Amino acid sequence: MAKGMQCLLLFTIINTPVRRCSTAPPGADNGAAELMEELLVWLDPFFVLPYRLVGQPEAAYFLGTATLALLTALIGIATLRMAQRMHRKRLKKLQDDMRHYHELSESALQNSGKEAFKAVNRQGHEAFSYYFSLSNALFVASLWPVPIVLAWMKLRFGLVSPELPISLPLFGNQPSMVFWFILFYIPLRMFSNKTITRWQLRRAEAQGNAPDTFEISPKAPCESSQASHAEADSQPTPSKMDKP
Fold first, then answer.
1. Is residue 9 assigned to a domain?
2. What share of the chain is helix, strand, coil (3-state, %, to 5)?
3. Domain that residue 207 falls in
4. Distance from CA of residue 32 to its chain's centroid?
5. What is the DSSP letter of 15?
């Protein structure tokens, strides 16, 4: 598609009111798809606003998509924080269990031998698995705005998106709207989450309270104990001296 035709098409799509694709009346019982389409049509005047702030079509597309990605990231982070507050007792208990089993495994390694260490370590890994699974489930639940925004972009733009001067592997020279949205969403969510977490930590330090944030530890709770166990095995045992 020629550059001028693409810009004209984007300009037309951005400034034209979106219409329902279904021919059934709005009040009819048309199922979940029609209800979703009605919701997207209702949200369209709000979602399209950032696309109309700039006159240049491609710049408007990038600005509008970045704005929606930022809004989606902030809603997702707020959802995640609320879910963590709702499950705070459960998350706190799992964290305490991991810490308890970690300390217990250190004691078992020094005093009780391999079998006790393995049993405690197994319980620590089980607590870590529960914590990791619950944290991941809460994170996935916080992604609920993403499909709504992508569905609206599909309704508004269809397959039309800005062209690139080069062809990318697997995407070509005209990536889809999913490519552009994810390209903005991932860094904006990471930056927003880091900024909000730092603000919460500073606020908690100023008030003298512990922050209500839960982070997934990259290591299992007893991983360091395993390393200590390996070092203990590698050390030579002192030989007994013969009695006179």
1. no
2. 70, 0, 30
3. 35-164+171-222
4. 26
5. H
Picking from 149, 139, 138, 128, the residue whose alpha carbon sits closest to that of residue 217 is 128
Long-range contacts of residues 86-93, Cβ cutoff 8 Å, at least 24 apart: 87/134, 87/138, 88/212, 88/214, 90/134, 91/131, 91/134, 91/135, 91/214
- Is 180 a member of any domain? yes
Give how far Cα 55 sits from Cα of 14, 61, 64, 192, 229, Å.
10, 10, 12, 28, 65
Residue 228 placed within a domain: no
Show the tokens assigned to 138: 């809460």
Running DSSP on this structure, what letter comes out for residue 158? T
Over residues 156-178, the pLDDT tens digits come to: 998 888 888 888 888 888 888 99
d(CA 80, CA 82): 5
pLDDT in tens, 93-137: 888 888 888 788 777 777 766 777 777 778 888 888 888 999 999
Residue 24 lies in a domain: no
Listing DSSP states for 180-228 in one string gives: HHHHHHHHHHHHHHHHHHHHHHHHHHHHT---------SS-TTHHHHHH
Counted domains in the chain: 1
